[in-house]
């Protein structure tokens, strides 16, 4: 039987670390390229840079998210000092109000490293997979009619998706308090499509995916 | 400068932000100046495809342009000021102004002035060329969508990552056709340089399960090792072979269950070791490692398991023999020794990988 020294095992684990470091970087590279194509060719603005979220002890789910601007949405911008150099510039968006009509679709693209493919999703995939689609606001938790337009903090939008993507046990309808003092909104899945992450191999695959995302959002 | 930074002889953090930005510009566009025209054309083609309104203008980029770094141009307006774009590419029928930023802090007024000044300079040269400005940064500025209507006829955007994609893809094509070693070395170093700044080309996910990293070259920074053999890109999948599966006694299991509960189950890229237990043994210095890897990760990190354990869980055990070798045969039950338990899957940070001896 071949033997393996402790040093060899440590080396293997270090290589494992490099493997995940590489994978992490590649997922971010992929999502950034996708966002770039969506912005350039389809004029779909993103709300913030793609980000990853992990919920910690109780879950092994890891999701990478790209949140796009809802159809017909406006962001109530504050003056940003363009000279202030910061890599976190886009995170400023988190604190701004997002205004959209009550029938708007809230688009997203996610890479799920671990988790079940959602029921009713178009396409088939094993993990890890890409999930993209839209959510819609279907009502208010207090039963009152939706205001038109709906106003919510962009940070809550992130929070909603983090909760939804990172906690597969959470069941729709997803609720989230739209903004301080505002009504708690009820969200439902409007459309969901999945495909294996391994199907993205070249730039043209990203272009193709961007086209499909744009079709759904549009 | 390039090699000094690459091999960490020169500490980049000592530079001011502006200088740092200029170094990156110099590295990337300086390389474009010396590389064959295919690299520049591949980048322009990508931008042309992504910016439909600029396609006719980009089509005028034929041949290799004159590359001018930090030219001092007189402002078109009578303000008497001088503007200094980072790079200007002069084709016969097109001028492209490149404004590079580390992040996305572009100023639309500055870009507009640079465009007008370049237009002015082109006229002074007797050229009536359209001028396109390409903003190169990590992300778009906050004003991008607000100003898009006014800027979409002259302003394009590219991330550093897209440039890295172009370098890798073009090199792959040229390597297949037999490119020069010097060219491979230059692009390899450039990719390593970008990697150090966390700018990576996109390589696809096809090879995650089966591919391997290039052979390591001890002593070189990780980024350089990674791009040591640029093409084909190889990603490492760790080869952990579980050679021995240990069946614990019921009594031991309860101990392990308790520890499993208290041990943090970390993010997929955290790796922790925690004490399991001391077991009575006549043979000392036995080590044990329990691997619990969630299914999807196991799918991309294939574990070879001996024995009757599942594909996701196994125990790697070895004896710290004098020669540090795995025990060929051993009897863990009733043994006293050392154990290491690992929960979760490896971390992205090497510093988080540690081994404790109990």
Most residues in contact, chain pair and counts? A-B, 68 and 82 residues
Largest sheet of chain B: 5 strands, mixed
Alpha-beta content class of chain B? alpha/beta
- Uncertain stretches of 5 or more adjacent residues of chain B: 208-219, 229-358
- Main sheet of chain B: which strands, in order across? 1-4-5-6-7
Shape of chain B: globular
Q: Give me the secondary-structure category of chain A.
A: alpha+beta
Instruction: Please give the largest β-sheet of chain A.
Output: 6 strands, antiparallel
Regions with little confidence, pLDDT below 50 for 5+ residues of chain A: 55-60, 80-88
Q: Identify the strand order in the major beta sheet of chain A.
A: 1-2-5-6-9-8
Mind explaining what this structure looks like?
The complex is a heterodimer of chains A (about 220) and B (about 350). Chain A has helices spanning about 5-40, 155-165, 205-215, and strands at about 50-55, 60-65, 75, 95-100, 105-110, 130-140, 150-155, 175, 185-195. By secondary structure, chain A is α+β, with helices and mostly antiparallel strands. In chain A, the strands form two sheets. A six-stranded antiparallel β-sheet of chain A has the order 1-2-5-6-9-8, sandwiched between helices. In chain A, strand 8 (about 175) and strand 9 (about 185-195) form a beta hairpin. The longest helix of chain A has about 35 residues, at about 5-40. Chain A is globular, with a radius of gyration of 19 Å. Chain A starts with 5 loop residues before the first helix and ends with a helix. The model of chain A is unreliable at about 55-60 and about 80-90 (pLDDT under 50). Chain B is an alpha/beta fold and about 350 residues long. Chain B contains eleven helices and 13 strands. Chain B has helices at about 1-5, 15-35, 35-50, 55-60, 110-125, 145-150, 160-175, 180-195, 220-225, 250-260, 295-300; strands spanning about 65-70, 75, 80-85, 85-90, 95-100, 130-135, 155-160, 240, 270-275, 285-290, 305, 315-320, 340-345. In chain B, the strands form four sheets. A five-stranded mixed β-sheet of chain B has the order 1-4-5-6-7. Chain B has a four-stranded mixed β-sheet with strand order 9-13-10-12, with no helix packed on it. Chain B has a two-stranded antiparallel ribbon with strand order 2-3. In chain B, strand 2 (about 75) and strand 3 (about 80-85) form a beta hairpin. Chain B is globular, with a radius of gyration of 28 Å. The interface between A and B is large, with 68 and 82 residues.
């Amino acid at each position: 039987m071949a033997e393996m020294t402790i040093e060899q095992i440590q080396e293997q684990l270090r290589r494992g670390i490099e493997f995940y470091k590489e994978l992490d970087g590649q997922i971010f590279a992929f999502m950034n390229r996708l966002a770039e194509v969506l912005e350039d060719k389809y004029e779909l603005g993103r709300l913030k840079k793609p980000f990853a979220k992990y919920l910690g002890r109780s879950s092994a789910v890891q999701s990478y998210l790209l949140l796009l601007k809802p159809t017909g949405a406006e962001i109530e911008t504050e003056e940003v000092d363009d000279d202030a150099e910061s890599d976190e510039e886009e995170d400023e968006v988190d604190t701004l109000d997002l205004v959209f009509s009550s029938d708007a679709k809230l688009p997203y693209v996610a890479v799920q490293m671990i988790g079940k493919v959602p029921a009713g999703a178009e396409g088939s995939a094993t993990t890890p997979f890409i999930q993209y689609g839209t959510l819609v606001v279907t009502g208010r938790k207090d039963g009152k009619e939706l205001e038109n337009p709906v106003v919510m903090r962009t940070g809550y939008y992130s929070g909603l998706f983090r909760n939804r993507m990172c906690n597969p046990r959470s069941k729709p309808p997803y609720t989230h308090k739209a903004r301080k003092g505002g009504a708690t909104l009820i969200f439902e899945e409007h459309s969901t499509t999945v495909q294996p992450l391994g199907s993205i191999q070249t730039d043209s695959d990203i272009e193709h995916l961007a086209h499909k995302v744009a079709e759904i959002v549009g | 400068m390039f090699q000094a930074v690459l091999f960490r002889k020169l500490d980049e953090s000592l530079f001011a932000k502006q200088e740092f930005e200029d170094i990156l510009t110099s590295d990337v566009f300086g390389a474009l100046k010396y590389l064959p025209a295919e690299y520049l054309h591949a980048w322009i083609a990508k931008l042309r495809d992504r910016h439909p309104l600029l396609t006719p203008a980009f089509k005028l980029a034929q041949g290799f342009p004159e590359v001018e770094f930090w030219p001092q141009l007189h402002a078109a307006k009578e303000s008497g000021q001088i503007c200094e774009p980072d790079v200007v590419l002069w084709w016969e029928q097109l001028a492209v102004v490149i404004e590079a930023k580390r992040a996305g802090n572009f100023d639309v007024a500055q870009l507009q002035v640079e465009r007008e000044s370049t237009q002015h300079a082109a006229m002074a040269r007797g050229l009536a060329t359209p001028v396109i400005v390409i903003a190169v940064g990590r992300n778009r500025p906050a004003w991008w969508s607000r100003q898009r209507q006014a800027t979409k006829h002259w302003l394009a955007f590219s991330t550093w990552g897209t440039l890295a994609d172009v370098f890798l893809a073009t090199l792959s094509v040229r390597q297949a056709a037999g490119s020069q070693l010097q060219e491979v070395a230059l692009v390899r170093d450039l990719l390593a340089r970008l990697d150090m700044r966390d700018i990576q080309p996109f390589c696809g996910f096809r090879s995650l399960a089966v591919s391997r990293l290039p052979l390591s070259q001890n002593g070189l920074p990780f980024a350089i090792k990674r791009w040591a053999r640029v093409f084909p890109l190889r990603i490492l999948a760790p080869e952990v072979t579980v050679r021995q599966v240990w069946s614990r006694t019921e009594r031991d299991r309860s101990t392990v269950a308790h520890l499993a509960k208290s041990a943090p189950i970390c993010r997929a890229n955290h790796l922790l070791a925690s004490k399991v237990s001391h077991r009575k043994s006549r043979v000392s210095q036995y080590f044990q490692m329990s691997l619990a890897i969630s299914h999807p990760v196991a799918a991309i990190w294939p574990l070879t398991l001996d024995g009757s354990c599942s594909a996701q869980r196994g125990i790697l055990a070895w004896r710290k023999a004098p020669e540090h070798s795995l025990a060929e045969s051993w009897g863990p039950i009733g043994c006293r020794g050392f154990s290491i338990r690992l929960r979760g899957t490896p971390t992205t940070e090497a510093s988080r990988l540690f081994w404790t001896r109990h």
